[in-house]
Amino acid sequence: MQSLWVNKTNLSKAEWHETALPELGDGQVLLEIEKYALTANNITYAVVGDGFGYWNFFPTGDDAHGIVPVWGFAKVVQSRCADISEGERVYGYLPMASHLVVTPGGLSSGSFVDGAEHRAGLALVYNQYHRLGTDAGKHEEERALFQPLFTTSFLIEDMMRQADWFGADALVLTSASSKTALGLALVAKNLSPGIKRIGLTSPGNIAFVEQTGLYDQVLAYDDLGQAESGQPTVSVDFAGNSKLLSAIHSHWGDNLKYSCLVGVTHIDERSGAGDLEGPKPIMFFAPTAAQTLIEQVGPDQFRASVDKEFAAFIGAMKDHLGVEHHSGTGAIASSYLEMLGGKVAPSRGMICAFA
């Protein structure tokens, strides 16, 4: 069993650890990880791992090191659970590792929850695994790349719409080329078409962002001043860049009606922004928002609503994303460091596998 251990205080220090496969206890299942997506979202899990508990899902037993969570597909290779058969495949939250032991509970024909003791009390959205049968399905790679991020996109739009967009007429998104920002732009376009969508991105990504057709206006970060400041606006910051956040607050001032913080993609500039004009930024935590919405509309309606918008997103992005495959421990580690260093163009979708 191999797993990539990351130094929690220096994320660029990563090394493989090899251990014997564990003996299964009653009710446990051994998953062999087939493939997973590597995105900026996974870097966010590592950056805020201590504060949000992301290191707790796949503990190493070493306080200085953690295993970065990812979303992907795995196959049951051993089972001591009567209701789970060897050969069955699942989709869900996985470690950067070759194998994972889970203790299925809350079993249904379509899913189960890992009842491992160390995962008790952690967010359900991360503990639930979808049962897929034995055959590969359609759009699996797109699902791994986009769906966890897209659900966050969907939930942000829902929160804003339920609040009547806080009286705003426009939405400004940082890291506009990121998958979560693109997803939010699409859902807002479909469900809140009266809201103007303004994307902020680096100069090298402007052409890509414009080509998606998901934004009404696309600006480089240094050109933020060209955005209309007199229009009531809400912001969603995916970048975690304190100087940029301060510039957004200064530009809109009292016309900034809500400031939402989501994730961290610019990890070298995530320090505090000091005193800001306008509203106090609020951190968005998707698992809490998901639980609230599920309680409002029920799990079936929630899933159906997300799936409808997700299908539209896949259609919108099919010509703008190329999927790359990276196999083997060396390629996986290199891909992780490349993503950590912000060297992955938004048009690249990275799928990692051990073989």
Task: Domain count, please report it.
Answer: 2
CATH superfamily of the largest domain: Medium-chain alcohol dehydrogenases, catalytic domain
Helix and strand pattern: EEEHHEEEEEEHEHEHEHEEHEEHHEHE
Return residue spans where pLDDT drops below 50 for at least 5 consecutive residues.
Answer: 265-271
Broad structural category: alpha/beta
Q: Per CATH, what is the topology of the largest domain? A: Quinone Oxidoreductase, Chain A, domain 1
Strand content: 25-35%
Mean pLDDT: 90
SS field, number of helical segments: 10
Helical proportion? 25-40%
Tell me which CATH architecture of the largest domain applies here: Alpha-Beta Complex
Query: Shape from CA axes?
Result: globular
CATH class of the largest domain: Alpha Beta
Beginning-to-end CA distance, first to last residue: 13 Å
The biggest beta sheet is recorded as: 9 strands, mixed
The radius of gyration over CA amounts to 20 Å
Count the beta strands: 18
